[in-house]
């Protein structure tokens, strides 16, 4: 005969439930507390930290405790490669502070944690002058969060931008292309976007066979719509100054053109019977050569390259000689 009645426990449940024989309606929490302590002991520090941080976390809410505060977002652009003049492969570095994602390092033995960006609030950004799409799918990239709430996120991708080019001095031309990122819905009182550096980061850049990076600079700007002058929107423009590598065009366009011009001048020193034969050969060479040059020159009607004017003028002179 026990001095105290035994406690009857039902272990078939997902959480073991212990009932006092004195009153079946009174649930004892001793066994449940011990079992939860044992389950918590099996969890890693990251699991405990994630459970602590995201208990009631809402990704749609801005990462500030005071709704009147502004989220300061710093952006840096890292150029990786150039596929075409208007197609750039790059990554963007965003940094901001999420006041809801802070913790005591001594309680979790962690100074930072890496999580999927889809689980946290991320700044809204759009490619303002994008030629393909304004928004992209970048939430699969992971973010790094420190114990102070600082968030570092580096989404990458291929960006197509609209770039106005001047090919007057093709192939010795230089171009400047801009890639503009900005907020589409948040105005500056809600989210303020600024640049962290004055130049584009080229540490991971792979040289391109056609373009050489000359210099770069970053310009931050604000704009507003006529209807709402008090609501200003911020954007950051990354300008890249590029110089065309002209070796290929010199060897395949300019030198053949000079050789053909020399042949054209040689017609004046030929006997009258050979002028027609040499003139026809040079004329056909110019026509075929003009087709190749047309494929090499960027197609735009805003500026006519001097090389494109030089070859047709030689065709006209050649026709005059044959006549």
Automatic annotation (TrEMBL):
Name of the protein described by the UniProt record: Neurotransmitter-gated ion-channel ligand-binding domain-containing protein
Molecular function GO terms recorded: extracellular ligand-gated monoatomic ion channel activity; transmembrane signaling receptor activity
PROSITE patterns given in the database record: NEUROTR_ION_CHANNEL
Pfam families listed in its UniProt record: Neur_chan_LBD, Neur_chan_memb
Family indicated by similarity: Belongs to the ligand-gated ion channel (TC 1.A.9) family.
Keyword check for Membrane: yes
Organism the protein comes from: Capitella teleta
GO CC annotations, alphabetized: membrane
InterPro entries, per database record: Neur_chan_lig-bd, Neur_chan_lig-bd_sf, Neur_channel, Neuro-gated_channel_TM_sf, Neuro_actylchol_rec, Neurotrans-gated_channel_TM, Neurotransmitter_ion_chnl_CS
Membrane topology term: Multi-pass membrane protein
Transmembrane regions listed in the UniProt entry: 248-269
Neurotransmitter-gated ion-channel transmembrane domain sequence ranges: 253-311
Location of the protein in the cell: Membrane
Keywords assigned: Ion channel, Ion transport, Membrane, Transmembrane, Transmembrane helix, Transport
Domain Neurotransmitter-gated ion-channel ligand-binding: 46-246
């Amino acid at each position: 005969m026990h001095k105290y009645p035994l406690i009857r426990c039902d272990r078939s449940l997902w959480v073991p439930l212990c009932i006092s024989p004195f009153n079946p309606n009174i649930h004892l929490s001793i066994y449940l507390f011990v079992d939860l302590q044992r389950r918590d002991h099996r969890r890693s520090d990251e699991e405990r930290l994630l459970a602590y941080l995201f208990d009631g976390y809402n990704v749609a809410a801005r990462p500030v405790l005071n709704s009147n505060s502004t989220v300061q977002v710093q952006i840096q652009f890292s150029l990786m490669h150039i596929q075409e003049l208007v197609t750039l492969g790059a990554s963007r570095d965003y940094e901001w502070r999420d006041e809801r994602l802070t913790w005591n390092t001594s309680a979790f033995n962690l100074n930072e944690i890496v999580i999927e960006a889809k689980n946290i609030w991320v700044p809204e950004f759009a490619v303002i002058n994008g030629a393909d799409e304004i928004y992209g799918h970048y939430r699969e990239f992971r973010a790094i969060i420190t114990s102070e709430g600082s968030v570092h996120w580096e989404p990458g991708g291929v960006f197509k931008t609209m770039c106005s080019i001047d090919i007057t001095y093709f192939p010795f031309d230089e171009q400047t292309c801009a890639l503009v990122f900005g907020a589409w819905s948040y105005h500056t009182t809600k989210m303020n976007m600024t640049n962290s550096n004055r130049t584009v980061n080229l540490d991971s850049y792979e040289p391109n066979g056609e373009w050489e990076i000359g210099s770069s600079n970053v310009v931050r700007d604000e704009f507003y719509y006529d209807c709402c002058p008090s609501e200003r929107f911020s954007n950051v423009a990354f300008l890249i100054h590029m110089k065309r590598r002209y070796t290929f065009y010199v060897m395949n366009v300019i030198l053949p053109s000079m050789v053909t011009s020399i042949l054209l001048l040689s017609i004046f020193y030929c006997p009258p019977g050979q002028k027609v034969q040499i003139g026809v050969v040079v004329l056909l060479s110019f026509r075929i050569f003009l087709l190749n040059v047309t494929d090499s020159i960027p197609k735009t009607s805003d500026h006519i390259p001097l090389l494109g004017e030089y070859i047709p003028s030689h065709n006209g002179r050649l026709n005059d000689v044959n006549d």
